[in-house]
Amino acid sequence: MILVILKLLVVLIFLAMFIRRPSVVWGIGLLTVTTAVLLDTILGTFNREELLAELGFFFYVINGVILAGAATWFWGVIRPHLPGGTLLPATPGMATTSNAPVARVPATKSAPTAPTTSVSDPSPAPAPKLPPPFPADHVDNFEQAGYDRQMLFEEIRGRFSREDLNDLMFDLDVNEMDVATVGQTMDELVVRVMDAADQAGQASTVGLAVERILTPPPAQHLPRLSKLTPESPRTVVRHYVLAHYSTEQLQQLATSLDIDWEQLEGADKKAKTRAFLLYLYRRNRIGDLLDAMRAKANSKDAA
Fold it and tell me: Could you tell me which residue, 120 or 64, shows the higher pLDDT?
């Protein structure tokens, strides 16, 4: 009985970690431990010798898959902690999980130092700091907007989940396919999102978008429906929909626009709403949604 409880506890721990911070690594780990527990439970419940005889070579295939999944999970967990595995070493004296809002501070440029060419006393090369430096002729739009790029990176890195980062990419109109790669760490993705916003001339809006994700504006502080247009900021439209519509109402709106709600990605309201709006923006149909929302509101007032 104790062994069964321990097995369930391990599965619950992996499930909690996957829910807390969804990622491919923890998804593989959850699938691996679940498969291992189920296999062990089945072999312990029924006649082990008969089951092994029936499974034959397939049993060793399952064991190989479980071992490969465990190795993949282990490597994905320890990789960020290996030398050179993380994109940004922790900055001394800087809290990465502070609850304070994003600070607008003037960025300062440090004077370049002359490189040393000593051969008699070689020293290891310093670890690269992230976000990585731009070419000398690059204009730092974050600095011109009054933000410290490093501090903004630390704020996103320390306080955002993967879902929060997806919201930020939506609000900044950054295509996930342009910044996400296979085997990418969270730090790498944050850097690429910031770089994409900088190159698109949206550096000045990143800080505000981060603040709105960390502290969503209340419904009474959002514009009225009549003031929303297809040119309204994406973050405003997203927050308005989240604040004023339930999942069932959004599904009704999708049906009225001939969109299959079940085909949209996402397991919760935030993810479904983001996928719904992204579908409409990519097809220049956000105006159709606003019209449907106004028609629904007018019919409700008339009733």
Answer: 64
